[in-house]
Amino acid sequence: MPKTDLNNVPTPCYIIDEGRLIQNLEILHGVEERTGAKILLAQKAFSCFHLYPLIRRYISGTASSGLYEARLGFEQMGGENHVFSAAYRESEFDEILSYSNHIIFNSFGQLEKYREKTLSAGRKIGLRINPEYSTQSGHEIYDPCSPESRLGITDRNFRRDCLSGVTGIHFHTLCEQNSDDLERTLIAVEEKFGDVLEKMEWINFGGGHHITRSDYDIPRLERCIKRVQDKYNLEVFLEPGEAVALNAGFLVSEVLDITENDMPIAILDTSASCHMPDVLEMPYRPPVSGAGERGEKPYSYRLGSQTCLAGDVIGEYSFDSPLSAGDKLIFEDMAIYSMVKNNTFNGMPLPDILLKKTTGELEVLRKFGYSDFKSRL
Question: Is residue 29 part of a domain?
Fold first, then answer.
C-alpha cells in the first residue's frame, strides 16, 4: 500500500483493499464455476458486512456460528446460510431457524432435541463429524481433532441407527492449510464414515482452506471435490473465512514514543491484545510493510502497545532507517480475525474501518469513539 494513502489517515485504523478482495473472490468463484461446489464466507473470520454486496456476486453465501452471525448473513448477504454451533440455546433456536438453510448439530443429543422443529421448518439437517485425523502442528488451539476435542462426533460415538432426517455431513479440521491436507483428511473421513456418506445428499468440507494463497494447489482441491461428487453423488460446500480476505487488509498505526531496555522499543497506538488478538493466541508475528526480521536491517525494534499488559508485544522487527515518534507503520494481512475479535481492554479505542477502493480513494466505513467503549460495559 503506497504511503501517500496514509497522509490524512487517523490511527489506528483498518484499511480493507477492495482490489485485493476482488482478486480473492475471483479465485473462489473460479472454483465454484469449474466444480459446481458452493463456497460460503465463514463470518467468524471476516464479518465486514459493508462488503457483503460485493462478496455475494462471487460466492454462494455465509457460514455462521450462532444467532448473530446467522442474522447478519441472512440480512446482509442472502443466499446459502449454514449454521453450526457446538450447542444451541433453546431460547434462540427458532430465530436461528428463520435465518438459515442448513442446521448442523454437534451431537445426537442436540439432533434429537431439535430434529422435528428443524424438519418442520423445512431446513436441512447435518451432523458434524470428527475424523480423528490431525494435520496440524504448532496450533493446537485451532485443532478440532486434538484429544478430547469437543467438536464433532467420533466414529465410536456415531449412532448410525439415528439418522432420520439427516441429509448431510460436516467436518472442519484444517487451519491455514493446503489441499494435500484436505486430501489426506478425506481419506480418513471415508475410512470411518464412508458408509454414512453413501446415505447423504451433501457434505461440507468446513474451513481452513487457504485457497487464495499463492502456493495453494487448486487443481488438487478440485480433484477432491469432484471425487466426492462422483463417488457419492453429494453436493459439496466449503466455508473458508481467511481465503476470502487473505492479504486484503491492513492495520495502520503510529509510533508514539521510543524507549530503551536492552533494545529499542517502539510504543504504538495499536495493540496486539486489543486489535489483533491472534498475535497472542496463535501466536504469530504479523508482517510489517518494509520491515525485516530482527537484525536483518540496520535498526531493530520491539513493537509494543500503550496498554498496561506487559506481554502486549507485537514482535521484533528491523528497518532501513531509525523510527521516530509520528512514523506510521502498516501491519499486513489484517482483514481476517482482527475486526471480529478486537476489544477495548484498557479503554483502547477501536480502530476505524476504511475501504481502499479500486480507484485508490479511501472511504470511511465506520468510525468508533468513547460511546463504543462505554456501551460494551
Answer: no
Task: Kindly report, residue by residue over 187-230, the tens digit of the pLDDT.
Answer: 999 999 999 999 999 999 999 999 999 999 999 999 999 999 99
Predicted TM-score (pTM) of the model is 0.95
Environment class of 25 (CB within 10 Å of its CB; exposed 0-12, middle 13-18, buried 19+): buried
What percentage of the chain exceeds 90 in pLDDT?
Answer: 95
Total of domains in the chain: 2
For residue 22, being part of any structural domain is answered with no
% helix, strand, coil for the chain, step of 5: 35, 25, 45
Looking up residue 314, the CATH number of its domain turns out to be 2.40.37.10
d(CA 142, CA 136): 8
Q: Which residue type does 283 have?
A: P
**Cell triple for 204:** 461440507
The answer to whether residue 62 sits within a structural domain is yes
Is pLDDT of 120 > 70? Answer: yes
Per-residue confidence at 138, pLDDT binned at 50, 70, 90?
A: low
Q: Which residue has the cell 444467532?
A: 67
Last residue of a domain, one of 222, 245, 268: 245
253 and 354 in one domain?
yes
CATH code where residue 204 lies: 3.20.20.10
For residues 213 and 263, state if they share a domain: no
Closest CA to 294 of 265, 271, 256: 265
Distances (CA, A) of 138 to 5, 175, 283, 332, 357: 37, 11, 9, 22, 36
pLDDT of 104 above 90: yes
Burial class (CB in 10 A: 0-12, 13-18, 19+), 94: exposed
